[in-house]
Amino acid sequence: IDVAHGVILDVEPTPAHRTAEVESTKTMVERVEERFDLTPHRLIGDTAYGTAPMLGWMVEEKGIEPSVPVWDKSERRDDTFPCSDFLWDAGKKEYRCPAGKALKHNWRPFKKPRSHITQADTVVYRASQRDCTACPMKAKCCPNTPMRKIARSIHEDAREMARCIRKTVQYQQSRCERKKVEMLFAHLKCILRLDRLRLRGLNGARDEFTLAAAVQNLRRLAKLASPPRPFGGQIASTAQEIG
DNA sequence: ACGTGCTACCCAAGTCGTAT
DNA sequence: ATACGACTTGGGTAGCACGT
Protein backbone atom coordinates (compact mmCIF):
# COMPACT_ATOMS: atom_id res chain seq x y z
CA ILE A 1 0.00 0.00 0.00
CA ASP A 2 1.22 3.46 -0.94
CA VAL A 3 0.55 5.27 2.34
CA ALA A 4 0.82 8.73 0.78
CA HIS A 5 -2.35 8.13 -1.27
CA GLY A 6 -3.91 5.04 0.33
CA VAL A 7 -3.66 3.11 -2.94
CA ILE A 8 -3.20 -0.66 -2.96
CA LEU A 9 -0.42 -1.44 -5.45
CA ASP A 10 -0.22 -5.19 -5.18
CA VAL A 11 -1.73 -8.26 -3.51
CA GLU A 12 0.03 -11.50 -2.59
CA PRO A 13 -1.67 -14.15 -0.46
CA THR A 14 0.39 -16.40 1.81
CA PRO A 15 -0.28 -18.99 4.49
CA ALA A 16 -0.40 -17.43 7.99
CA HIS A 17 3.34 -17.89 8.53
CA ARG A 18 5.55 -15.04 9.62
CA THR A 19 8.39 -15.79 7.22
CA ALA A 20 6.03 -16.40 4.30
CA GLU A 21 4.23 -13.12 4.97
CA VAL A 22 7.51 -11.22 5.08
CA GLU A 23 8.92 -12.95 1.99
CA SER A 24 5.79 -11.93 0.04
CA THR A 25 6.88 -8.30 0.53
CA LYS A 26 9.91 -8.96 -1.67
CA THR A 27 7.65 -10.49 -4.34
CA MET A 28 5.34 -7.47 -4.27
CA VAL A 29 8.05 -4.79 -4.19
CA GLU A 30 9.81 -6.39 -7.17
CA ARG A 31 6.55 -6.94 -9.10
CA VAL A 32 5.48 -3.30 -8.59
CA GLU A 33 8.93 -2.27 -9.87
CA GLU A 34 8.44 -4.33 -13.03
CA ARG A 35 4.82 -3.34 -13.65
CA PHE A 36 4.76 0.34 -12.73
CA ASP A 37 8.46 1.27 -12.55
CA LEU A 38 7.83 2.37 -8.95
CA THR A 39 10.26 1.76 -6.09
CA PRO A 40 9.42 2.76 -2.51
CA HIS A 41 11.75 5.21 -0.72
CA ARG A 42 10.95 3.58 2.59
CA LEU A 43 9.07 0.62 3.92
CA ILE A 44 6.86 0.66 7.03
CA GLY A 45 6.34 -2.57 8.91
CA ASP A 46 6.30 -4.28 12.30
CA THR A 47 9.05 -6.26 14.04
CA ALA A 48 8.46 -9.30 11.80
CA TYR A 49 10.11 -7.27 9.02
CA GLY A 50 13.07 -6.40 11.27
CA THR A 51 15.11 -9.59 10.81
CA ALA A 52 18.69 -9.21 9.64
CA PRO A 53 18.18 -10.79 6.16
CA MET A 54 15.07 -8.65 5.49
CA LEU A 55 16.81 -5.42 6.56
CA GLY A 56 19.83 -6.44 4.47
CA TRP A 57 17.60 -6.94 1.44
CA MET A 58 15.88 -3.55 1.95
CA VAL A 59 19.03 -1.50 2.54
CA GLU A 60 21.77 -3.29 0.60
CA GLU A 61 19.83 -4.61 -2.42
CA LYS A 62 16.98 -2.13 -2.83
CA GLY A 63 18.15 1.09 -1.18
CA ILE A 64 14.89 1.29 0.82
CA GLU A 65 14.85 3.07 4.20
CA PRO A 66 13.55 0.61 6.82
CA SER A 67 10.88 2.23 9.07
CA VAL A 68 10.86 -1.02 11.00
CA PRO A 69 11.78 -2.01 14.58
CA VAL A 70 14.90 -4.19 14.65
CA TRP A 71 14.45 -7.82 15.75
CA ASP A 72 17.05 -7.76 18.51
CA LYS A 73 17.50 -10.09 21.46
CA SER A 74 20.96 -8.92 22.45
CA GLU A 75 19.98 -7.38 25.80
CA ARG A 76 21.35 -9.48 28.66
CA ARG A 77 19.46 -10.24 31.84
CA ASP A 78 22.38 -10.99 34.16
CA ASP A 79 23.63 -7.41 34.62
CA THR A 80 26.70 -7.95 32.42
CA PHE A 81 27.72 -5.47 29.69
CA PRO A 82 25.27 -5.62 26.74
CA CYS A 83 26.59 -5.66 23.16
CA SER A 84 25.66 -1.98 22.83
CA ASP A 85 28.46 -1.13 25.32
CA PHE A 86 30.99 -2.31 22.74
CA LEU A 87 32.04 0.31 20.18
CA TRP A 88 32.23 -0.74 16.52
CA ASP A 89 35.24 0.55 14.59
CA ALA A 90 34.17 0.33 10.94
CA GLY A 91 37.65 1.24 9.67
CA LYS A 92 39.54 -1.44 11.60
CA LYS A 93 36.58 -3.86 11.50
CA GLU A 94 36.78 -4.61 15.19
CA TYR A 95 34.91 -3.92 18.44
CA ARG A 96 36.35 -2.03 21.39
CA CYS A 97 35.25 -3.29 24.83
CA PRO A 98 34.46 -1.04 27.86
CA ALA A 99 38.04 -1.70 29.08
CA GLY A 100 39.42 -0.47 25.75
CA LYS A 101 40.59 -3.85 24.42
CA ALA A 102 39.93 -5.05 20.87
CA LEU A 103 37.53 -7.83 19.80
CA LYS A 104 38.72 -9.11 16.41
CA HIS A 105 37.71 -11.84 13.97
CA ASN A 106 41.23 -12.28 12.59
CA TRP A 107 43.83 -12.56 15.31
CA ARG A 108 46.20 -14.49 13.09
CA PRO A 109 46.66 -15.41 9.41
CA PHE A 110 45.64 -18.73 7.86
CA LYS A 111 47.28 -20.75 5.08
CA LYS A 112 43.89 -20.96 3.36
CA PRO A 113 42.26 -17.53 3.85
CA ARG A 114 38.83 -17.77 5.50
CA SER A 115 35.67 -15.69 5.11
CA HIS A 116 34.91 -15.99 8.87
CA ILE A 117 31.19 -15.98 8.05
CA THR A 118 29.39 -18.63 10.12
CA GLN A 119 26.38 -20.67 9.02
CA ALA A 120 24.15 -18.20 10.87
CA ASP A 121 25.47 -15.42 8.58
CA THR A 122 27.38 -13.79 11.42
CA VAL A 123 31.03 -12.99 12.03
CA VAL A 124 32.22 -13.82 15.55
CA TYR A 125 34.41 -11.16 17.14
CA ARG A 126 36.44 -12.30 20.16
CA ALA A 127 38.57 -10.63 22.76
CA SER A 128 41.98 -12.08 23.50
CA GLN A 129 41.87 -14.60 26.33
CA ARG A 130 44.94 -12.94 27.83
CA ASP A 131 43.18 -9.54 27.97
CA CYS A 132 40.03 -10.99 29.58
CA THR A 133 41.92 -13.00 32.23
CA ALA A 134 43.77 -9.88 33.38
CA CYS A 135 40.74 -7.56 33.11
CA PRO A 136 39.36 -6.06 36.37
CA MET A 137 35.89 -5.81 34.73
CA LYS A 138 35.70 -9.54 33.85
CA ALA A 139 32.89 -10.19 36.37
CA LYS A 140 30.76 -7.51 34.64
CA CYS A 141 31.58 -8.77 31.16
CA CYS A 142 32.14 -12.51 30.73
CA PRO A 143 31.94 -14.18 34.17
CA ASN A 144 31.21 -17.63 32.70
CA THR A 145 33.55 -17.74 29.71
CA PRO A 146 37.31 -17.43 29.14
CA MET A 147 36.80 -14.46 26.80
CA ARG A 148 33.97 -12.22 25.56
CA LYS A 149 32.68 -12.72 22.04
CA ILE A 150 30.10 -10.93 19.92
CA ALA A 151 28.32 -12.40 16.91
CA ARG A 152 27.88 -9.61 14.37
CA SER A 153 25.37 -10.13 11.56
CA ILE A 154 26.69 -9.64 8.02
CA HIS A 155 23.70 -7.27 7.69
CA GLU A 156 24.61 -5.31 10.83
CA ASP A 157 25.00 -2.01 8.92
CA ALA A 158 21.37 -2.31 7.78
CA ARG A 159 20.26 -3.16 11.34
CA GLU A 160 22.14 -0.12 12.64
CA MET A 161 20.44 2.09 10.03
CA ALA A 162 17.02 0.83 11.18
CA ARG A 163 17.97 1.57 14.81
CA CYS A 164 18.92 5.15 13.86
CA ILE A 165 15.72 5.70 11.84
CA ARG A 166 13.67 4.53 14.82
CA LYS A 167 14.92 7.52 16.85
CA THR A 168 13.78 10.07 14.24
CA VAL A 169 10.63 12.21 13.99
CA GLN A 170 10.02 10.63 10.59
CA TYR A 171 9.67 7.22 12.26
CA GLN A 172 7.00 8.64 14.62
CA GLN A 173 5.14 9.93 11.54
CA SER A 174 5.36 6.52 9.89
CA ARG A 175 3.63 5.02 12.93
CA CYS A 176 0.66 7.34 12.18
CA GLU A 177 0.76 6.48 8.48
CA ARG A 178 0.46 2.83 9.38
CA LYS A 179 -3.05 3.68 10.59
CA LYS A 180 -4.07 4.38 6.99
CA VAL A 181 -3.16 0.79 6.17
CA GLU A 182 -5.11 -0.50 9.16
CA MET A 183 -8.13 1.59 8.08
CA LEU A 184 -8.08 -0.11 4.67
CA PHE A 185 -7.98 -3.53 6.32
CA ALA A 186 -10.79 -2.54 8.69
CA HIS A 187 -12.87 -1.40 5.72
CA LEU A 188 -12.16 -4.70 3.94
CA LYS A 189 -13.33 -6.68 6.94
CA CYS A 190 -16.31 -4.66 8.09
CA ILE A 191 -17.78 -2.98 4.98
CA LEU A 192 -16.70 -5.35 2.20
CA ARG A 193 -17.38 -8.32 4.50
CA LEU A 194 -14.00 -9.92 3.83
CA ASP A 195 -13.59 -11.18 7.40
CA ARG A 196 -13.95 -14.68 5.94
CA LEU A 197 -13.10 -16.02 2.48
CA ARG A 198 -15.57 -17.93 0.35
CA LEU A 199 -13.11 -19.40 -2.19
CA ARG A 200 -10.64 -22.06 -1.01
CA GLY A 201 -6.86 -22.24 -1.37
CA LEU A 202 -4.23 -19.61 -2.07
CA ASN A 203 -5.63 -18.99 -5.59
CA GLY A 204 -9.10 -18.41 -4.14
CA ALA A 205 -7.64 -15.98 -1.62
CA ARG A 206 -5.70 -14.22 -4.37
CA ASP A 207 -8.87 -13.77 -6.47
CA GLU A 208 -10.96 -12.45 -3.60
CA PHE A 209 -8.29 -10.08 -2.30
CA THR A 210 -7.40 -8.78 -5.78
CA LEU A 211 -11.05 -7.95 -6.49
CA ALA A 212 -11.43 -6.34 -3.06
CA ALA A 213 -8.26 -4.27 -3.65
CA ALA A 214 -9.63 -3.11 -7.01
CA VAL A 215 -12.85 -2.02 -5.27
CA GLN A 216 -10.85 -0.12 -2.63
CA ASN A 217 -8.82 1.65 -5.31
CA LEU A 218 -11.94 2.56 -7.31
CA ARG A 219 -13.43 4.09 -4.16
CA ARG A 220 -10.24 6.08 -3.71
CA LEU A 221 -10.30 7.16 -7.36
CA ALA A 222 -13.92 8.33 -7.06
CA LYS A 223 -13.03 10.36 -4.00
CA LEU A 224 -10.08 12.05 -5.73
CA ALA A 225 -11.83 12.63 -9.08
CA SER A 226 -15.21 13.97 -7.93
CA PRO A 227 -15.54 17.56 -6.65
CA PRO A 228 -16.88 18.01 -3.11
CA ARG A 229 -20.70 17.98 -2.98
CA PRO A 230 -23.03 19.99 -0.72
CA PHE A 231 -24.84 16.97 0.79
CA GLY A 232 -21.74 14.78 0.93
CA GLY A 233 -22.69 12.84 4.03
CA GLN A 234 -26.03 11.62 2.69
CA ILE A 235 -24.57 10.67 -0.70
CA ALA A 236 -21.67 8.87 0.94
CA SER A 237 -23.92 6.69 3.05
CA THR A 238 -26.03 5.80 -0.02
CA ALA A 239 -22.89 4.92 -1.96
CA GLN A 240 -21.81 2.63 0.85
CA GLU A 241 -25.12 0.84 0.77
CA ILE A 242 -24.79 0.32 -3.00
CA GLY A 243 -21.16 -0.84 -2.51
C1' DA B 1 48.22 -22.61 24.32
C1' DC B 2 44.89 -20.40 22.10
C1' DG B 3 42.01 -18.93 18.05
C1' DT B 4 38.13 -20.65 15.20
C1' DG B 5 33.78 -22.60 13.78
C1' DC B 6 30.29 -25.47 14.85
C1' DT B 7 26.51 -27.42 17.75
C1' DA B 8 23.49 -27.47 21.65
C1' DC B 9 20.59 -25.02 24.02
C1' DC B 10 17.69 -20.83 25.62
C1' DC B 11 14.21 -17.18 24.77
C1' DA B 12 9.74 -15.02 23.30
C1' DA B 13 5.96 -14.82 20.38
C1' DG B 14 3.47 -16.97 17.49
C1' DT B 15 0.97 -21.09 14.84
C1' DC B 16 -0.52 -25.92 14.47
C1' DG B 17 -2.50 -30.25 15.91
C1' DT B 18 -4.91 -33.02 19.02
C1' DA B 19 -7.71 -34.29 22.97
C1' DT B 20 -11.59 -33.16 25.47
C1' DA C 1 -15.26 -24.42 21.14
C1' DT C 2 -11.53 -24.62 24.06
C1' DA C 3 -7.19 -25.93 26.33
C1' DC C 4 -2.75 -27.20 26.02
C1' DG C 5 1.55 -28.98 24.45
C1' DA C 6 4.55 -29.36 20.35
C1' DC C 7 6.74 -26.97 17.10
C1' DT C 8 8.76 -22.86 14.34
C1' DT C 9 11.29 -18.69 13.95
C1' DG C 10 15.69 -15.80 14.34
C1' DG C 11 18.35 -13.99 17.64
C1' DG C 12 21.36 -14.87 21.66
C1' DT C 13 25.21 -17.55 24.83
C1' DA C 14 28.20 -21.56 26.38
C1' DG C 15 31.20 -25.01 25.40
C1' DC C 16 33.48 -28.51 22.67
C1' DA C 17 36.67 -30.33 19.06
C1' DC C 18 39.95 -29.17 15.97
C1' DG C 19 43.66 -26.47 13.57
C1' DT C 20 47.65 -23.60 13.86
From TrEMBL:
The record's section on InterPro entries has: Tnp_DDE_dom
Record domain Transposase DDE: where = 97-222
Q: Which domain of life is it from?
A: Bacteria
Name the record gives this protein: TnpA
